[in-house]
Amino acid sequence: MASTRSASTAPALPSGQFLRWTWRQLTSMRTALLLLLLLALAAVPGSLIPQSKVDPLAVKLFADKHPTLTPVLDRIGGFSVYSSPWFSAVYLLLMVSLVGCFVPRIAVYARAVRARPPAAPRNLERLPASASYVTDQPVPEVLDRAQRLLRAQRYRVDTDSDTTGGAVRAQRGYLREAGNLLFHVCLVVVLVGVAVGSLFGYKGGVIVTEGEGFSNTLTQYDEFSAGALFDSADLPPFRLQLDSFQADFQLDGPQRGAPRLFEARGDLVSRPGAAPVPFDLRVNHPLAIGGTSVFLIGQGYAPVITVRDGDGNVVFSGAVPFLPVDSSYISNGVVKAPDAAPEQLGFEGFFLPTAVDTADGTPVSAFPAALRPRLGLFAFHGDLGLDAGAPQSVYVLERDGLTQFTDANNKPLRMLLEPGARAQLPDGLGSISFDGLRQFVKLQISASPGTTVPLVAGVLAIGGLVVSLTLRPRRAWVRARREHGRTVVEVARLDRVSGTDLGSDVQALVRSLQGEPTTSRSS
Amino acid sequence: MSTQDWATLSNQAVATATVIFALAWLAHLAEWAFGRQPARIPQPALVGADGAAGRPDATPSPPDRSAVSGRAGLSLTVLAFGVLLVGVVARGVAAERVPWGNMYEFATTGLLVATGVYLGLVRAYGVQWLGPLITGFCVVVLGLAFLVYVDAGPLVPALHSYWLVLHVSAAAIAGGAFAVGAAASAVYLVKARAEARDGASTGYLARLPSAAAIDKVAYRVHAFAFPIWTFAALIAGPIWAQYAWGRYWGWDPKEVWAFITWVVYASYLHARATAGWRGRAAAIVALVGFATFLFNFVGINLFGSGLHSYAGV
After folding, report:
1. Chain B: nearest CA to A377, how far in angstroms?
2. What is the pTM of this model?
3. So what's the pLDDT on residue A520?
């Protein structure tokens, strides 16, 4: 670069120069360091504020609790930190800085690998670790021995000679920079691989109750998200049938109630026309169907409920998944009977797998297994709001058009049913019965293609990292010259990364050069 | 021996180790207190041409009470390490699995690693000067670990995987080494400040090696821990998450903080190679890195939500 003008005093930089200045700033180590620290800082909010992609329910609860803060946070991407513009800006800048830093370094390194080891400095004794001695051996013999010794220590060796003598120049630890570059290149490959893979992948969730089945089509999913380049026609057409689900819990001791085993059993038809194959699905042991995997990620209870209307007609019948709220499997659920006459009926309820009687009637479950199952229900009549056209969650009752049934004391009517029991609604408007109990599983069905690339790159990155953190590039020089009929030998070493005890290292080299200890000077 | 006997043995061993660590700590504090007295012998220049740790001449005519206390502290630490090892192994036998299934077990194993790394460094580089911080840290964390104690027992289904062995052990090794690295960085900050103030410090500080030598030890420990942490958090963790939860990275709070820790330690490694950041700033970044690790272990486990809820309390 011919320009020596200082950027800070220049009144108006030519635009090319300004761009070059910006580029140099962006790719400097200092900027990379600041961006790294900024990345760490930018990642913090996402762990403190619930994230809609991680836990949508928690986001909803947060919004209810903080009505004024929520819109502000929403506008700045507080609920989707890791896809927000500011978080993306930080890591994209970091990527640019990284690439801009290591691409030129690759070129520099390629030249350095081909170049000879650096020539011996004029004054070896000025280096931090050097020694010299006088011997009767001729110069070529000394240099030859030095070459062999340094080669044995895995140095790359070269020699110079002049009129009075000669010198050996040697360097080792070339792989350090290679490891460093490998690490950074692999880091970019990991990130690009993850990004590309997510374009083609998909992830869906579905609740399947014992005795029911699931066909892998878009309409069957409760929730589904896919990458931009995913085509729903590519969903593999498998079907699975859930026969039974087993949940074991610790029965005694301080960890009583802790889950011990979750196992789902059933049959899998991997494609239309194929023979059903039994499967058993456990946590940590997903079911692989081609490139798609089925994971067991949750479970709960689905009471079998029948609703009759005022005319005695069955207007609802089936197993209703109740979503667990805590580790004792107190669960909440909703039943909607839009076909009931004269009025539509709706129920909100809770399920207790092992109900305990409490003085004030608070619903408490003492154990997650269904040892004493009870179904608690609040009943509503009126308009369920299903005709408005807006989609409704099956787990939420829209109460706007509904009137709650009350008991004789004008308090909300609460029914607590044991299995097989039936409760009549007031005014002959119908009845509800708790006919039996099944369990449901929450399955996640997903494909993440292209994970091999980031995985291999990640493992290579660690290899590169270890090499770059352990290898120490080192230079060594041995110069010998004839003086007054004897040979003066100077030895020096230089570490490019501080760390080792070079003084004793030089001493060791001197001793091996001499073959026997003689007077030597070290500084 | 029944599993109950092993569990009892483990509890007794961990409690005993805590007491021995406390004694070791007291010994190191005595070393420090005696070392504060003006040095009776002129201190030789500690910084050699090679920058290696110089130690003062340990042969004054009256017995050097500081040195005796220091040796007692080190011996007690070796003993505590052995007893804690018994505690961790017995815990594994009692639970019939690797003892890394909850917060209490991770804390005891992590401290075992930290003490092991420290003792290894004492052998290799003579880093007894880390003793006060390491033993103090062990006492405090073991004491707090009793607050999250749970009886030895089987694992929840999500932990039934051999990735428990790889992922959690790597995290414990990296965490233990980070603790030693943080201790070294803290000592570095103190020593560098003393050196900047008057050049020739007195008393206990003079017994420490040069700031440059301390910095070198800190760097080595971090350079050892960082690749292991990379493996634990960014390779083994995602692979297991893929098996258990069907996604390899989901920004779960634990994952977020593991990532933050990784980025901060990456910053430390870069800071050591950046003008204006070497030394003091880099050491502070290393301490921040350890703080993020501790927050991930304590804060996220106890007060956070998410999929990594294995504290067992």
Report:
1. 29
2. 0.83
3. 43
Measure the CA–CA gap between B77 and B122, rounded to whole angstroms. Answer: 11
Residues of B in contact with A40 (CB under 8 A): 260, 263-264, 267, 292
Using a CB-CB cut-off of 8 Å, the residues of chain B touching A203 are 246-247
Q: Give dist(CA A374, CA A434) in Å, integer.
A: 9
CATH class of A119-172+472-522: alpha beta
Candidate from A258, A293, A523 with C-beta closest to B49:
A523
Q: Cβ of A286: how many Cβ atoms within 10 Å?
A: 23
Residue A394 near residue A370, CB atoms below 8 Å: no
Domain residue spans of chain A: 15-113, 119-172+472-522, 198-295+444-460, 300-442
Domain boundaries, chain B: 3-39+64-303
Q: Do B260 and A40 touch (CB under 8 A)?
A: yes
Cβ separation A47–B253 shorter than 8 A: yes
In sequence order, the 6+-apart residues with CB closer than 8 A to the CB of B266 are A36, B226
pLDDT tens string B85-130: 999 999 999 888 888 888 999 999 999 999 999 999 999 988 999 9
Closest partner residue to A33 (CB to CB) among B235, B274, B312 is B274
Rounded to 5°, the CA angle A57-A62-A65 comes to 130
pLDDT in tens, A239-284: 999 999 999 888 877 677 888 889 999 999 988 888 999 999 998 8
CA distance A265 to chain B (A): 16
Q: Cβ distance A208 to A223 under 8 Å? A: no
Q: Strand A486-495 relative to strand A129-135: parallel, antiparallel, unpaired?
A: antiparallel
Q: Three-class SS of residue A17?
A: helix
